[in-house]
Amino acid sequence: MNDNTSDNAGVITIPPIIYLVGLLLGLLIHYFYPSRFLSESVSVWFGVLLTPVAIPIALFAMLALKRAETPIDVLKPTTAIVTDGIYRLSRNPMYVALAFVYLGIACWVNSLWILLLMVPVLVVVDQGIIKREEQYLGQKFGDEYLRYKSEVRRWI
Question: pTM for the full model?
């Protein structure tokens, strides 16, 4: 029996969980200590504009991964380095999409707490997910990944 459990990046959790924890914690703090950072009319418009930006980013990223026949699930072994499509612009478009959703919700709710918690959320994503993925991909794909990493930005 082939055990592929160690053939993954060893990330701390799946990325949406990190964003969700930050969002829920921000909502909880906001419930007890409301603190707004924009006028109501502006916050709603920013939320309406930012959140949908994530949809095409995520869709293009998922399609590129599907075409390359490599899993979206970070807990499964990566089978290919995807360097085309949206991955020419960002090495982590799925995380960029999640960040846009998070920021859009922060604006929509108009919560300074959610906005402020975005900083530790992104640090945890960077350190607990992305750095581990980069190390894993570098070990697994060697020069192919290192070349891609040197040519394309981590975020945007």
Answer: 0.91
